[in-house]
Amino acid sequence: KVAQILSTIPEALPQEYVAELAQLQANAPSMGWAFVKRRMATELGPDWQARFARFDKEAAAAASLGQVHAARSHDGRELACKLQYPDMRSAVEADLKQLRLIFSIYRRYDPAIQTSNIHAEIAARLREELDYIREAKHIALFRHMLKGVETVRVPDVRPELSTGRLLTMEWLTGDKMLAHKDDPLAVRNRLATAMFTAWWHPFSRFGVIHGDPQRGKDTGCDDGEGKPAGINLLDYGCIRIFPPSFVGGVVDLYRGLLNGDDDLVMRAYQVWGFKRLNRELIDALNIWARFIYGPLLDDRVRTIADGVKPSEYGRKQAFQVQQALKQRGPVTVPREFVFMDRAAIGLGAVFLHLAAELNFHRLFNEAIERFSVEQVAARQAAALTAAALKPSAG
């Protein structure tokens, strides 16, 4: 997971490292055919091959928790079968123990940030990623939330060919996001706008985020001329469902920063769960907030980095926050903040790679038009009922 995140940040590492780590987005070492047959028989029974018209022996993609095989149903539909590696629960629990050890060492030399909530949130999301039945419900949730959004395609699940460790979906054709980094600006802007919609529409209206936006996601090429008309949104393991009040805090912080309303800014941090707030701590938190919200506060067409070298984007602010918290901390990061921040950085990395030029301010204000916490709560309740889902743990 760490390698996946590092590979999404432009120029964070030497290019030869990025090329290798980028493979972990969808090209990790895969299980062999004999292994796959045993795993499929465990999930669908000994006659599992008879349930498909075709099942490719070679994996089309492999990542951290499982691999995907292309297949065809008897009704002629192309399928993607996501098969989890064996005994992943034990592997994840072992990794979480190692992560706790790493955090404990980190706290000894830099106690500015308390990491207990960070570990708890990562643990909860990773354990959810192991549950493919829940992921199928996440897909149903996103199909409900993005219904009518033509620029974002969400796959349909085949429940009769799915289990807790096998997820069979329709195959969505497309090519990698980075394949379009040298396309005309209009194409790159169209893709970036679709990505913005795929992320902010569910969050601002339903309080749900896709916690793993990344440049490894596929793009749809279905405008009839081989040009991407939008994106295929893939991989629904890491989904975060927020209390509607948290969404209200995000909007309040934006409006507080935009209008210089210090009381609204403080209220936003309080709603998020930050404790022992004072003027100095808020000033430190605002360094990062102004960096994340910067493009949304700026009412003009711009790139996400706006002239800053990709390799330097965010580094100055991160250093300033770290130094400020060393003096004024420690601060305990609220659980909800963890994947919100990670997803925002991942989304920004997509915009960086595409070098999109958009008015992010106007896109965001369209997303929060007529916003209210009560509306988010009502929409969220209806969407979760439609998808037979419960809110995220914690």
Describe this structure in words.
The protein has 394 residues and is an alpha+beta fold. It contains 14 helices and 13 strands. It has helices at 2-7, 15-22, 33-44, 88-109, 116-129, 132-145, 185-206, 244-259, 262-272, 279-297, 315-328, 335-354, 360-367, 373-387, and strands at residues 54-55, 61-62, 66-72, 78-84, 113-114, 152-153, 166-170, 174-176, 208-210, 218-220, 230-232, 239-241, 331-332. Strands 1, 2, 3, 4 and 7 form a five-stranded antiparallel beta sheet that branches. A four-stranded mixed beta sheet has the order 6-11-10-8, covered by helices on one side. A hairpin with a 5-residue loop joins β3 and β4. α5 (116-129) packs across α12, α8 (244-259) packs antiparallel against α14 (373-387) and α10 packs antiparallel against α11 (315-328). It is globular and about 65 Å long. The relative contact order is 0.13.
